[in-house]
Amino acid sequence: MRNDASNMGDYQTKQTFETFSFLPQFSQQDVFAQVEYIIAQGWNPGIEHEHPSTAFNHYWTMWKLPFFGEKDPTRVWAELEACRRAYPDHHIRLIGYDNYAQSQGMQLVVFRGRS
Q1: Where are the beta strands (DSSP E) in 1-115?
Q2: Which H or E run includes 84?
Q3: What angle do CA 30, 33, 35 make, to 5 degrees?
Q4: What is the pLDDT of residue 54?
């Protein structure tokens, strides 16, 4: 068996950003469940965005500051939607910052922009 791009199929045609990007696109309920999970872990939700053409070139732009101590997932969801309205052609990423480990506990692209 040859180990070249012809054996890779769809893997080569889809940009991947994190573990969840290998799964089918999340529904609104799935994303909301991830926001709830971030809050339940005691992590601070954050939102970043970047145009698809530069998503791999540099750090993504932060949408406001992380939501330190936020307990209401609907507020985070409202900010995700606000970011999407402001930047409809950008990828938008949800992040869970873990204060204890001082790192990102999770991240996933929740909206994909137009390439």
Answers
A1: 44-50, 61-62, 91-98, 103-111
A2: helix 73-86
A3: 115
A4: 87
